[in-house]
Write a structure and sequence with these properties.
seven-stranded mixed beta sheet; alpha+beta; five-stranded antiparallel beta sheet; about 25% helix; binds biotin
Length: about 270
């Protein structure tokens, strides 16, 4: 199996000014790009790897990253703002990734709040955004946008631990899916997202709400000391999930404070 083909990616990039670097193997494109971010790499630096030996997911989880089949991509941006102005960042990346998949393959995934791309009840991909702050000002120095998307896997290619919950572009399409094309569409969509990030968050959040399959569903909220049940009824202006409890009480839940699980299967 070949590694992502830089020339093929470039051919699909059009006039996009971002700089894509392709690696055969890294520990984690996010970890590597955070280091480059600290060293002053410019906004628009993008790392893509054929495989990761230490791929990371949210909440300290491992993100299995075998070669030849998945897209493992991290992009560096440098928004000039306070970290509190980026509460919607992961939502913005999720909408951009729905656009990218749709542009590459003609189907649009849904978003499982906050950061999973899903098709049917199965996970197509995930997003891990990480911020670096300027220690003097407390403002954002850089953000690393890390995305993993299952592209060329057949069902049997997934590790047994995730097989029942995972899908790929190839499985959705029923034919091989062009990984280089997907990478290029991801880069273009992220570049466009970055340009609108601080100017039109509300328009983006409207699109997020339209793509979010969690809304209207029963969810369970797992905190360290309790599990409660509620209905997901909205997404607020910071990307928090608004849930309604059986007694009518409403609460905004941020992604860091509770793990939200669908009550029926993966979603
Ligand atoms: C999740 O599903 O919890 C998030 C998964 C994010 C995986 C991507 S793959 C590229 C980048 N490098 C990493 O180590 N993680 C992200």
């Amino acid at each position: 199996m070949s590694i992502p083909d830089w020339k093929a990616i470039e051919a699909h990039l059009g006039g996009c000014p971002w700089q894509v670097q392709v690696f055969e193997e890294v520990t984690s494109t996010n970890t590597l790009l955070k280091e480059l971010g600290r060293q002053g790499a410019p906004a628009g630096t993008v790392l893509v790897a054929d495989r990761q030996t230490g791929g990371r997911g949210r909440l300290g989880r491992t993100f299995l990253s075998p070669g030849g089949v998945g897209v493992y991509l991290s992009a560096l941006i440098r928004p000039d703002c306070a970290p509190t102005e980026l509460m919607h960042l992961t939502c913005a990346v999720a909408v951009a990734m729905c656009d990218a998949v749709e542009n590459a393959f003609g189907f649009r995934p849904g978003i499982k709040w906050t950061n999973d791309l899903v098709v049917g009840k199965k996970k197509l991909g995930g997003i891990l955004t990480e911020l670096g702050l300027d220690p003097k000002t407390g403002r954002v120095s850089y953000a690393v946008l890390g995305i993993g998307i299952n592209c060329g896997q057949c069902e049997a290619d997934f590790d047994e631990s995730i097989r029942a919950m995972a899908t790929s572009a190839r499985m959705v399409l029923g034919r091989p899916a062009d990984r280089d094309r997907l990478i290029a569409e991801m880069v273009k969509a992220l570049e466009k997202m970055d340009r609108a990030l601080l100017t039109s968050p509300e328009a983006m959040l409207e699109r997020y709400r339209a793509d979010c399959i969690t809304l209207g569903r029963e969810v369970s909220l797992h905190r360290t000391d309790s599990v409660t049940h509620a209905t997901a009824v909205g997404i607020d202006e910071e990307g928090a999930l608004i849930v309604e409890y059986p007694d009518g009480r409403r609460e905004a839940v941020s992604s860091g404070e509770a793990s939200v699980r669908g009550m029926y299967g993966y979603v």
